[in-house]
């Protein structure tokens, strides 16, 4: 049994070890990527932010990030150069996605980035001898062949296993917050925006996922690698259940309200004929209605990261961070 002095020395030693670790975050300028960067910095790690030339660095610079490298999933040479920098990174955390609003604005090749781009990133990581690759994946992606940008995550997981690059894939469920977070404004009006009324989904708060990613990059033993882990709440929840959690946490009535009116949903299939992005979103909704965001194996998450958060715990953390109380 360690005495108080020995315990404090052990804690200090662990902090020193983490401060020596260097992590490359791919997609660092994104909403989730920024949360991952902060979680790593909070643990004392050295972060190198991999960003595209068109990406804003303002949020990262405000966090104190000074180590940037410009690379693009559609540019294999830039990936090789970024991963080959010395000292060698201890981990790569990849949250980048071609299927984003930024990619749409810059007319990037979404499919190429999420397929060939990720394969090139994995190859560059392996060639550089980086000992672990943490992939932000999607819950149920192995069961979603009809949803391209979901199934491409599973193909990336498969490629990681095939190449022998040590990895951990964190399959995230339905995010409470989004890249453009409309929830706070709606909560102020007494409303929780319900994407798919009546459909239960495993809930994820991005800052919780970011903490798991940082822990996976820095702290989990090698024995935990080379698998996919479903990430979500202790139980799936419908929009109405999330609204009830907000009611309990905030002490005032919050009701669930459909984001999309019935008429819009009825017309959407017609518009999807000329809007590929909308067509993909409709495929996502169809898949989710079949239970796509319900975990088959929550025990893995519990073993690696501790007890799964309840809906009320997630809502409470979110409300505190967003100052909704």
Number of helices: 14
How many strands? 11
SSE string, helix = H, strand = E?
HEHEHEHEHHEHEEHEEHEHEHHHH
- Name of the CATH class of the domain at 4-175 and 202-233 and 294-309: Alpha Beta
Mean pLDDT: 87
CATH topology of the domain at 4-175 and 202-233 and 294-309: Rossmann fold
What this model shows, in words?
The chain is of the alpha/beta class and 325 residues long. The chain has a domain at 4-175 and 202-233 and 294-309: NAD(P)-binding Rossmann-like Domain (Rossmann fold). It has 14 helices and eleven strands. It has helices at residues 4-19, 31-42, 58-63, 76-83, 101-105, 110-127, 148-163, 183-188, 206-218, 239-250, 262-271, 276-289, 299-305, 311-321; strands at 22-26, 46-51, 68-70, 91-94, 133-138, 167-172, 174-175, 191-194, 203-204, 227-231, 255-258. A seven-stranded parallel beta sheet has the order 3-2-1-4-5-6-10, with helices on both faces. Strands 7-9 form a two-stranded parallel ribbon. The chain has a two-stranded parallel ribbon with strand order 8-11. Helix 2 (31-42) packs across helix 9. The model is unreliable at 7-17, 100-109 and 263-268 (pLDDT under 50).
Offer a few descriptive terms:
325 residues; alpha/beta; Rossmann fold; seven-stranded parallel beta sheet; two-stranded parallel ribbon; 14 helices; 11 strands; 47% helix; globular
Secondary-structure topology with pairs:
Layout: H1 4-19, E1 22-26, H2 31-42, E2 46-51, H3 58-63, E3 68-70, H4 76-83, E4 91-94, H5 101-105, H6 110-127, E5 133-138, H7 148-163, E6 167-172, E7 174-175, H8 183-188, E8 191-194, E9 203-204, H9 206-218, E10 227-231, H10 239-250, E11 255-258, H11 262-271, H12 276-289, H13 299-305, H14 311-321
């Amino acid at each position: 049994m360690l005495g108080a002095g020995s315990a404090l020395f052990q804690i200090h030693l662990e902090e020193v070890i983490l401060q020596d670790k260097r992590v490359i975050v791919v997609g660092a300028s994104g909403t989730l990527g920024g949360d991952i960067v902060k979680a790593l910095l909070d643990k004392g790690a050295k972060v190198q932010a991999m960003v595209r030339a068109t990406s804003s660095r303002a949020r990262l610079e405000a966090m104190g990030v000074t180590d940037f490298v410009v690379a693009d999933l559609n540019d294999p040479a830039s990936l090789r150069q970024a991963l080959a920098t010395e000292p060698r990174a201890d981990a790569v955390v990849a949250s980048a996605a071609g299927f984003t609003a930024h990619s749409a604005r810059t007319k990037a090749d979404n499919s190429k980035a999420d397929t060939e781009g990720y394969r090139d990133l994995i190859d560059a990581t392996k060639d550089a001898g980086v000992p672990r690759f943490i992939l932000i994946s999607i819950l149920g992606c192995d069961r979603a062949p009809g949803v391209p940008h979901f199934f491409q995550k599973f193909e990336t997981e498969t490629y990681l296993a095939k190449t022998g690059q040590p990895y951990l894939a964190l399959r995230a469920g339905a995010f409470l917050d989004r890249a453009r977070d409309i929830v706070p404004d709606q909560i102020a009006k007494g409303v929780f925006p319900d994407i798919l009324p009546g459909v239960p989904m495993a809930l994820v708060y991005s800052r919780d996922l970011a903490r798991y990613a940082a822990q996976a990059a820095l702290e989990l033993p090698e024995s935990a690698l080379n698998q996919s882990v479903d990430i979500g709440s202790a139980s799936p929840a419908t929009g109405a259940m999330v609204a009830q959690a907000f009611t309990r946490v905030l002490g005032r009535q919050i009701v669930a309200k459909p984001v999309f009116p019935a008429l819009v949903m009825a017309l959407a299939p017609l518009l999807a004929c000329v809007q590929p992005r909308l067509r993909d979103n409709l495929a996502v909704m169809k898949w989710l209605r079949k239970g796509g965001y319900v975990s088959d194996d929550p025990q893995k998450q519990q073993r690696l990261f501790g007890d799964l958060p309840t809906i009320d715990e997630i809502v409470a953390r979110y409300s505190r961070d967003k100052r909704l109380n």
